[in-house]
Amino acid sequence: MQSEERVFEMFLRQYREIFCVLTNAAEQITGQYSLSFEQYLLLKQIHEQRNITLSELADDTRTTRSAAARKLRALLLDGYVEQEAKMDDRRVKYLRLTPKGEHVEDDIHQVFLQSAKTWNQIPSDLSDETINDFFTRYQNNLAVWDRNRPKFHRPVLRERHQASQD
């Protein structure tokens, strides 16, 4: 039991330290363009896959369709993205970056590339290949864990739902 508690405490500490540092760094970069990191990821995906649909965008960025639509709405309003209806099915809308969107995506991409170059400055006796291999294996293991972990339901919502049915 004490070992499980120690693993849990290490997980929380590492999560806070690693995730917060990386998230803050990414948000500082994208925030200069009044974008969230999540919105930038949508821009990047639209840039990489010409004529992508909202459903494909949600799948590719591992988010729900409604969450992707919310983030996309701001990108459309700010003139970064445009929609075009498919010729044979007007209900299907393709997403494309506008010239403004392409410029911003490229600017942010370049800043991220510059930031990535500083990874080599982190003191380590590990080679770049070893570090990349570790992250790849860790990501794969995390994906397996995520598929197999128990899914928890929020009891408060379940109680409210049951109360509303009574």
Radius of gyration: 20 Å
How many strand segments? 2
Provide the succession of SSEs: HHHHEEHHH
Count of DSSP H/I helices: 7
For the termini, the CA-CA separation is 40 Å
Average pLDDT over all residues: 83
Strand content: 5-15%
Quick synopsis:
The chain has helices at 2-31, 37-48, 54-60, 65-77, 99-117, 128-148, 155-165; strands at 81-85, 93-97. It is mostly helical and 166 residues long.
Task: Describe what you observe in this structure.
The structure is a single chain. The protein has 166 residues and is mostly helical. The protein has helices at 2-31, 37-48, 54-60, 65-77, 99-117, 128-148, 155-165, and strands at 81-85, 93-97. Helices cover 68% and strands 6% of the residues. Strands 1-2 form a two-stranded antiparallel ribbon. A hairpin with a 7-residue loop joins strand 1 and strand 2 (93-97). Helix 2 (37-48) crosses helix 5 (99-117) and helix 3 packs across helix 4. The longest helix has 30 residues, at 2-31. The protein starts with a helix and ends with a helix. The mean pLDDT is 83. GO terms for molecular function: DNA binding; DNA-binding transcription factor activity. Pfam families: MarR. Residues 4-143 form the HTH marR-type domain. This is MarR family transcriptional regulator.
Helix and strand topology:
Blueprint: H1 2-31, H2 37-48, H3 54-60, H4 65-77, E1 81-85, E2 93-97, H5 99-117, H6 128-148, H7 155-165
InterPro entries: HTH_MarR-typ, MarR/SlyA-like, Tscrpt_reg_MarR-type_CS, WH-like_DNA-bd_sf, WH_DNA-bd_sf
Domain HTH marR-type: 4-143
Pfam families: MarR
